[in-house]
Amino acid sequence: MASSNHPHDHDSGEGLVPVDEARERVLASIKPLQPLELPLTEAYGCVLAQNVVAERDLPDFASSAMDGYAVRSSEVAGATPASPVELHVVGRAAIGERPIGTVGGGEAFQIATGAPVPAGADTIVPIENCEAVGDHVRILVGSPPGKHVRPAGEDARAGETLVQAGRRLQAPELGLLATAGASHPLVHPRPRVVVLSTGDELIPPTQSPEYGQVHDSNAYTLFAALREAGAVPTLAGIVRDDVDAFKDLVFSHLLQADAFVSSGGVSVGERDVVKAAFFRRGEVDFYRVAMQPGMPQGFGEVEGKPYFGLPGNPVSVFVSFEVFIRPALMKMMGRRQVLRPEVTARLEEDVVGPKGKTQFARVRVKRTKQGWVATPTGGRGSNLIGTVARANGLAIVPAGVETAPAGSQVKVMLFRSAED
Ligand code: AMP
Ligand code: MG
Predict the structure, then answer these.
(1) What pLDDT is stored for residue 15 in this prediction?
(2) SS3 assignment for the chain
(3) Which residues crowd ion ligand 2, with CB under 5 Å?
(4) pTM, full prediction
């Protein structure tokens, strides 16, 4: 596309920034978001910014694992059905209450599962090994010290680290923090990302197009990709190819944005509104990356907020998100692993790409007995969003390789989890 109206021969890769270098440039200017103390339900999925330490033992009292009687192990050691040990029942330990009194010589407490073990007792005899007789109980089977007792501090001791900084809070961590009463952990918040779609031809998917009009699909691709990455998207809507209207829309969203993503308007056409708006201000750089799709890119900061100016073609948007924006968001969220997992797969068909650029070919990978196998899902055209919808990975055909032949091994970035 742009090679026809640009002095460089882009298929050779001349004058283009290599993909890794472009990503390094982006990541170098991205900082993790300032940590906040968030309630557990909001902290879910976020990365912990500070170790959480147990303030008390977990659990903080010894409790019974069975319904039965709390007794002294030394007194019931020799008990058998033929010669039971008879104890005086002097109290009852219920859940949620401190037991009143202690278990002395010749005594027992009736106890419920989960109830605190009364002082003096060191073992629990399950109810099926007992016979109640009035205010006495006959113990039919001995029980060693600690049996059926869940000791205090078994999960963690006071002062111990429960969850380390850098850990992402998922179900087990939220449960552990709640157990410990750590109700507002310090986490890196989710980035709030404002999404803009530029183009005079665009209409929302709710309208039927007049001839030549195009549904704004990029906003929805980005919405889902942002959500999946853990960010909080706001769709600012469609903006015409008009510099003033575009700037107004960007600046009206500054307060609620940690980052901006726009699609369209970054190449060299006269209507390229994003470029026209920012080029002279020098806040956003426009450059050409040695990749297909996704060559023209804008990246910089608007009032200190990262700004990603993506090209307009739907596949370019998806690939640019995966290659640049997702890693940047991961870094903002304090994640250590910012890149997608990759597998090495055998190509089932030839993949032809431009020689001087890294090609991100949409493929469907599956695991076979012989290892991973990748099948291309369609043509190279960066307008063919269906090729992405059928895929689960992006095969990386490096710059310098024009044809990756059927049977050769390629690296594939997986963008869906195995069960999808
Ligand atoms: P541009 O980069 O603005 O020149 O756009 C390149 C191509 O992508 C054009 O064919 C546009 O119609 C198309 N395009 C731009 N923005 C969107 C969008 N939000 N949704 C779908 N297609 C778009
Ligand atoms: Mg446009």
Answers:
(1) 84
(2) CHHHHCCCCHHHCCCCECHHHHHHHHHHCCCCCCCEECCHHHHCCCEECCCEECCCCECCCCEECCCEEEECHHHHCCCCCCCCEEEEEEEEECCCCCCCCCCCCCEEEEECCCCECCCCCCEEEEHHHEEEECCEEEECCCCCCCCCEECCCCCECCCCEEECCCCECCHHHHHHHHHCCCCCCEEECCCEEEEEEECCCEECCCCCCCCCCEECCHHHHHHHHHHHHCCEEEEEEEECCCHHHHHHHHHHCHHHCCEEEEECCCCCCCCCHHHHHHCCCCCEEEEEECEECCCEEEEEEECCEEEEEECCCHHHHHHHHHHHHHHHHHHHCCCCCCCCCEEEEEECCCEECCCCCEEEEEEEEEEECCEEEEEECCCCCCCCCHHHHCCCEEEEECCCCCEECCCCEEEEEECCCCCC
(3) 199, 264-265, 312
(4) 0.91
